[in-house]
């Protein structure tokens, strides 16, 4: 097994499990789990990236870290977090149709509450298309949205952390 994969999969798996647990916890607290899970990911991803890349540098690679090593390890970590989180949320929503319907109704209510603003800024056509798409939304859509919104900040944070932790000499 590649040293990068071996050093990073633990951090990605644990981070992804934390995101799924946060989704469940936020639901139990009565908070919209999709929004809060996304925000929790913005907090969690940089922590796991920093710890994982630093672990790779100090424990696996003898104290050295090139930018490309940091980007590779970071990519593996945030991709694993995103995959576990997205799949976990998708499975939870498949197993709990009532939770899926709650999330769907919540999103429809939010759209309707903001109708005036949306129509003013984007036009009635955009509102109608969005409304129709929300009516056809599936559990997979919510899981894949979570995946995407963990990948995007993951890339951003990986670049920054790889630059900060880069060390080309002992």
Structural features, described:
- The chain is mainly α.
- The chain has one domain (3-96, 138-165).
- Helices cover 86% and strands 0% of the residues.
- It is built from 7 helices and no strands.
- It has helices spanning 3-28, 33-60, 67-95, 97-113, 115-122, 124-135, 139-165.
- Helix 1 runs parallel beside helix 3, helix 2 (33-60) packs antiparallel against helix 3 and helix 3 runs antiparallel to helix 7.
- The longest helix has 29 residues, at 67-95.
- The two termini are 26 Å apart.
List the helices and strands and how they pair.
Blueprint: H1 3-28, H2 33-60, H3 67-95, H4 97-113, H5 115-122, H6 124-135, H7 139-165
């Amino acid at each position: 097994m590649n040293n990068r994969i071996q050093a990073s999969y633990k951090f990605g798996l644990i981070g992804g499990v934390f995101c799924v647990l946060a989704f469940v916890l936020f639901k139990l607290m009565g908070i919209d789990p999709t929004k809060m899970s996304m925000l929790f990911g913005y907090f969690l991803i940089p922590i796991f990236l920093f710890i994982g890349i630093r672990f790779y540098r100090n424990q696996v690679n003898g104290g050295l870290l090139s930018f490309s090593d940091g980007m590779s390890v970071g990519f593996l970590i945030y991709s694993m977090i995103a995959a576990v989180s997205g799949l976990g949320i998708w499975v939870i929503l498949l197993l709990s149709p009532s939770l899926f319907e709650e999330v769907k109704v919540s999103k429809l209510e939010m759209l309707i509450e903001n109708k005036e603003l949306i129509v003013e800024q984007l036009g009635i056509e955009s509102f109608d298309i969005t409304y129709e798409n929300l009516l056809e939304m599936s559990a997979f859509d919510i899981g894949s949205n979570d995946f995407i919104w963990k990948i995007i900040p993951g890339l951003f944070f990986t670049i920054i952390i790889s630059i900060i932790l880069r060390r080309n000499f002992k």
